[in-house]
Specification:
With 816 residues, the chain is an alpha+beta fold. Helix content is 27%, strand content 25%. The chain contains 19 helices and 42 strands. A ten-stranded antiparallel sheet has the order 1-2-9-10-11-12-19-16-15-14, with helices on one face. Strands 6, 7, 8, 13, 17 and 18 form a six-stranded antiparallel sheet that branches. A hairpin with a 4-residue loop joins strand 3 and strand 4. Helix 10 packs antiparallel against helix 11 (457-469). The radius of gyration is 28 Å and the shape is globular. The two termini are 40 Å apart. Bound molecules: beta-D-glucopyranose (BGC) and 1-deoxynojirimycin. Beta-D-glucopyranose is lined by residues 413, 487-488, 503, 640, 649-650.
Amino acid sequence: MQYGHFDDKNKEYVITTPQTPLPWINYLGNDSYFSLISNTAGGYSFYRDARLRRITRYRYNNVPYDQGGRYLYLRNNANGQVWSSSWQPVKKDLNHYTCRHGLGYTRISSDYQGIHAHTIYFVPLQANCEIWRTTLKNDTQAPVDLSLFSLVEFCLWDALDDSTNYQRNFNIGEVEVEGSVIYHTTEYRERRDHFAYFACSEPLTGFDTDRNAFLDNYHGFENPQVVQTGKSNQSIAHGWAPIASHHLQFALNPQEEKEIIFVLGYFENPREQKFDSNHPFQINKQFVSPRIQHYLQPSVLDAAFDDLARFWQEILEQYQVTTPDQDTNRMVNIWNAYQCMTTFNLSRSASYFESGIGRGMGFRDSNQDLLGFVQMVPAKARERLIDLAATQLPNGGAYHQYQPLTKRGNDAVGGNFNDDPLWLILAVAAYLKETGDHSILKELVPYDNQADTETALFEHLQRAFSYTLDRLGPHGLPLIGRADWNDCLNLNCFSLTPGESFQTTENKAGGVAESVFIAGLFILAGHEMEKIAQITLETQYAQQVRQHVKDMQEAVLTHGWDGAWFRRAYDYFGDVLGSQQNPEGKIFIEPQGICVMADVGLENSYALKAMDSVNAWLNSVHGVMLVQPAFTRYDPKYGEITSYPPGYKENASVFCHTNPWVMIAETRLGRGNQAFDYYKRINPSTRESISDVHRCEPYVYAQTIAGKDAPTQGEAKNSWLTGTAAWNYVAITQFILGIRPDYDGLVIDPCIPADWPSFTATRKIRNATYHIQVHNPHHHQSGVKTMLVDGKPHPIGTPIPYYEDGHTHHIEVWLG
Ligand code: BGC
Ligand code: NOJ
């Protein structure tokens, strides 16, 4: 069953009923002002940091779902009928409803009793505000007398404090109202120089800023007293809960249309000039007023909206494909790339499953997100790499996350994840391949943000690499630390205290838990490290790296191989996990994916056997599960993974992040049918037709899909902010379609389903455009037989040069 459809031409997903199985959301904003907006206009906004600078309030886990957002109430003053154009919160049966989520904007339109309402919500590029641009039209034969009430509820800035510290917070709320602008000024009197505002293009009939005055006691958002009666109170909030509601009353003749613009924004004043010189304690509005007036002009918004469309057009042009498969085309060309931008911007901080107060930017997460983003805005990727490296510790280790506002590392969600540092090498490698900007390796970057500790970025990578070597266990495999990529495989934790966090609790010392996954990651990163060392002419170091990689391969082949697949780990006591010997947790996906991606076992039969075992043991109709058999009981020596009911999260769900690893691994074996089959199983667009089972948005990846052991098999959770976005983008664009930037040229090595007769792609990279046609007349899965570059034969196995000449080059490839 579906709840909408794709509109590929307009790059939109069109939701045709407000009652989706879960709120289906979109993100607005790319730089510092961000909004989450659901298909019924729920959600919230923040400036840079979802925890520390929350602009509007949102209550997660509300009943029913998704209360609180960007609401517009309409009232027909002749008959007292009240509705909301986005269905929520009033939930009147609308005669028509659509929500179109597009790239950086959302349009919601509705018809009720002959009144057509259409609102487009977007954040202009580089602006610290969001626009709600509403048009109302009278489609009836008679004039109507309408009232429109807007509503946002302000958050008292720190979202954690806002939802916990009521003894203080019920006393501090403050606002100012001037003309049609409502200012939220809580804590401005003391240390804040920033405030929020909600402006309207029209003169007001009235307003409210006190939530209780607007709703009345014991009323919810669905039936505010003010909207029911059609009379606002001009209330001024003193403590309690500041809101902003404009009230406009106007008549519309038959077929008459009216446009109303709202601007919700964030603004910082210079500290020395923060107060109005005539009115101490009032905001100095001298700087903000022109900004507000600017964005209240329709012509400015037309231009801003065009700019946004152009921005996305240019971003997406970096990679466009036409394959025989529509799900592939729309995910590669539009939605997967779009999701990669979101994960790059927000890491795992704020979604409908991440509260925005739990986590900042994850070190391993951000490095992986960059893999799917680097081609979009390389300069931003560069900046991110430097920020990440600057949080690295002198011993090469990493904080697990940092706060975007301060850029400082913190251990709030644990530390000593021994895989963390290695991801930096993969991310820098991706940046170098995309841009050829070797200067980044010489960039001086501090450790732990401490002055006078700067070294070249290249040394950061060396220290990251050594971090693993300095922590090897008895089998020569890397010690796992608190956990590796799988945060829930806690082999040193041994927690017996209810509720204790597995991610932060003190670990038990003295064990020898080793990770085969980190070994595979080390080899993968080692291949890059060797090439990077060659770039910097550190040939001796490159040789050392090669030797370390060889030793690690040896260790994996000797101690990491179980007979039919790669083992997962050795536990605290040195006992094996992810082996035939284990009654549960016999086979895990992560080491199969990462080892084969790193080409371990390609020369003997191990890689092939491992991938066959993945198919035999872990594959399911909804994707490849993380582990089998699932753990059925809590085992303190394995930690959080065994805390989940079977089939959920790390305990044997289809943990989508790992699926592209096995897709890529399959392409290393040349098996395009299998790689693509895995790709299709979790492709959100493919799953659109089972939206009632999948339940999350059909246009973006979710982190998990319940596995075969779960009673709700096939149900997705945790959409949007997941490394799944970047890795699937890498798997399909670079390995299945096979168009892959390398250090010295563009590799074209497709590994596709045999029944594809052909596909075409356009890739822009390093100031040249490559127009690529791949022919597959004899239905092969891989192996390039002939290649023409601008009509001339090109040697197989040699990348296509980076022409950097601003021109378009035509590449023709035949598989055979
Ligand atoms: C989740 C993991 C996550 C970890 C850290 C765990 O509860 O299952 O997916 O990585 O928390 O936040
Ligand atoms: C989600 C976390 O953000 C990521 O860092 C981790 O690798 C996966 N969960 C697996 O546990």
